[in-house]
């Protein structure tokens, strides 16, 4: 604990802010990846929905590694369903990572007593507009 306190004091303000910004960037990257995978998941759902009504022997095309491959619906559909399940698991994992990154950022802010611009004024406004503290003049 003593060494941690020493290392915190030896960090400059710029290093502390850079560390905070790095954590925020990692959080944004996770959120972006989640959004991207969710869009892919929606596309997979659309394809599964459309292929479920099609004759299993009918030919269809699938993109594999940038190459368009001819297959039958009965070959493609299970693979797409499997991919969808894997994406759902990935989204769950990424959401857990995003949540833990948020906790890490909050601990970092508390440790270094960081405040974000605009946050202070909203706290002051909340204190000023507490219910029951405003007077009403009736004549």
How would you characterize this protein structure?
The protein is mainly alpha-helical and 139 residues long. It has one domain: Helix Hairpins (Orthogonal Bundle), CATH 1.10.287.370. It has four helices and two strands, in the order ααββαα. It has helices at residues 2-10, 13-51, 73-112, 119-128, and strands spanning 59-64, 67-72. The chain has a two-stranded antiparallel ribbon. Helix 2 (13-51) runs antiparallel to helix 3 (73-112). The chain is rod-shaped. Residues 132-139 have low confidence and may be disordered.
- Report the CATH topology name: Helix Hairpins
The low-confidence parts are 132-139
**Largest sheet, strands/sense/barrel:** 2 strands, antiparallel
| H-E order | HHEEHH
CATH C-level category: Mainly Alpha
Q: Strand portion, in percent?
A: 5-15%
Using the CA coordinates, give the radius of gyration. 26 Å
In the sheet with the most strands, the strands line up as 1-2
> How far apart are the termini?
63 Å
Total DSSP helices = 4
Number of strands: 2
Judged by helices, strands and strand pairing, the structural class is: mainly alpha
Second-tier CATH architecture = Orthogonal Bundle
Per the principal axes of the C-alpha atoms, what is the gross shape? rod-shaped
Organism: Octopus sinensis (East Asian common octopus)
GO biological process, one term: protein folding
Family: Belongs to the prefoldin subunit beta family.
GO molecular function, one term: unfolded protein binding
């Amino acid at each position: 604990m003593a060494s941690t306190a020493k290392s915190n004091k030896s960090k400059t303000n710029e290093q502390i802010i850079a560390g905070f910004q790095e954590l925020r960037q990692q959080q944004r990257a996770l959120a972006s990846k989640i959004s991207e995978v969710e869009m892919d998941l929606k596309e997979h759902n659309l394809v599964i929905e459309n292929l479920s009504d099609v004759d299993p022997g009918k030919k269809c095309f699938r993109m594999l590694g940038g190459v368009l491959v001819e297959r039958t619906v009965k070959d493609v559909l299970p693979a797409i369903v499997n991919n969808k399940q894997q994406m759902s698991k990935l989204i769950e994992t990424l959401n857990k990572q995003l949540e833990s990154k948020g906790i890490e950022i909050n601990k970092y802010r508390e440790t270094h007593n960081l405040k974000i611009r605009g946050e202070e004024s909203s706290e002051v406004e909340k204190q000023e507009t507490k219910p029951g503290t405003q007077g009403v003049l009736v004549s």
